[in-house]
Design goal:
The complex is a heterodimer of chains A (68) and B (285). Chain A is mostly beta strands. Chain A is built from one helix and five strands, in the order ββαβββ. In chain B, α2 runs parallel beside α10, α4 packs across α5 and α6 packs parallel to α7. Classes of the chains: A mainly beta (68), B alpha/beta (285). Chains A and B meet through β3 and β5 of A and β5, α3, β6 and α4 of B.
């Protein structure tokens, strides 16, 4: 299925979870400073593995950067 | 004027003099900066944006003595450089997330919630911008976002303009401080309206932190002399020719301005007041 991850279409298998989307942008392991929203709503780190994604949902994976 | 009027004028002047801020006592008995329910050792808050390298950022942050450091949230970039947050954690500083880049209350609130998750903190510097040329805050969206975030238990530090009425609204909404700009972000123009800043200071019952537009050390010192509880600056250090040296200057300026404020300055007068007494002047003509 196609979901949007960080503004770009991404092909993920049916039943893919938020955790899969996070891995797809290259984050593996270290969660400090990372947060995820699906269709604008925060998904807590503890829920990434069990939150399944649906076709066309928009996933934003963000991290702390210099700024502010 | 009659003696009653003169006496009342003296009393009011006395009240103003005595209203100088009392230092809070922090850890180890040193004066502390009470903000958001915690006591901090530094009144200087520094941003992390705009440094050439993480190493330059690290050296400047150390030189500044700042304990609170602002960070932003952006999309993960697989090719992205190493982590600002790693440096901040290693230095033992507190990362204050900023809703930089938000133009609506809805965006800012969602960003704050993301930040809460990413940083495991309830603190947020709330920025809701109205215009991308001036980066001035959108007052209406700002108050809306503040109310929502305070209700959700955030410690809200709102970036605002120098309107004392808006500052009061933000305080009434439950913000932990008010952070009026001196001039546009990154402009280096200093404090455009020190009179409004003074008015905000005299009415606020939460700390006032001058945030945006600081260009050099004297601007930071002036903010403290006007009675601000702290200063937040970023570009003035990151984009200085020598950020580490400027960071040291800013640290000293904030301390100097704060001490000068507590010392109780002499008033401005149109005419002279001799510092040497007349009595005992020799006649030599």
């Amino acid at each position: 299925m196609i979901v949007r991850v960080n503004g770009r279409p991404a092909e993920l298998p049916e039943g893919a979870t938020v955790a899969d989307a996070v891995k797809a942008v290259g984050i593996d392991g270290e969660n400090r400073g990372i947060a995820v929203a699906v269709d604008g709503e925060v998904v807590r780190g503890t829920d990434w593995e069990r939150t399944r994604l649906l076709e066309r949902q928009a996933v934003e994976v963000v991290r702390a950067v210099q700024g502010g | 004027m009659d003696s009653g009027h003169a006496a009342r004028s003296r009393e009011r002047a006395e009240d103003v003099r005595l209203a100088a801020p009392k230092p809070a006592t922090g850890p180890g008995g040193a004066e502390g900066f009470e903000l958001g329910g915690r006591v901090w050792g530094s009144r200087l808050i520094v941003g992390t944006g705009g440094f050439h390298s993480l190493d330059a950022m690290e050296r400047a942050l150390i030189a500044s003595g700042a304990e609170i450091v602002t960070v932003a949230l952006r999309r993960v970039d697989p090719g992205g450089k190493g982590s600002a947050l790693d440096v901040i954690d290693r230095l033992g500083k507190f990362a204050l997330p900023n809703t930089a880049g938000c133009y609506t209350a809805r965006d800012a609130v969602r960003t704050a919630r993301l930040a809460r998750e990413a940083f495991e903190t309830d603190w947020v510097k709330l920025e809701v911008i109205g215009d991308d040329r001036t980066l001035f805050p959108d007052a209406v969206e700002l108050v809306d976002a503040s109310e929502t975030l305070v209700d959700e238990g955030f410690v809200v530090l709102p970036y605002t303009n120098d309107d004392p009425i808006l500052a009061r609204r933000l305080e009434d909404a439950g913000c932990a401080a008010v952070m009026p700009l001196g001039s546009p972000i990154g402009s280096g123009m200093g404090i455009a309206n020190p009179y409004n800043i003074q008015i905000i200071v005299e009415r606020a019952t939460v700390p006032v932190i001058l945030d945006a537009g600081i260009g050099t050390a004297s601007d930071a010192a002036l903010a403290m002399e006007l009675g601000c509880g702290g200063v937040l600056l970023s570009s003035s250090i990151a984009r200085a020719k020598d950020p580490e040296t400027m960071a040291t200057a800013m640290q000293q300026a904030v301390e100097a301005g704060y001490a000068a404020r507590r010392a109780g300055r002499i008033p401005r007068k149109l005419h002279a007041q001799a510092s040497t007494r007349d009595e005992g002047t020799p006649e030599l003509d």
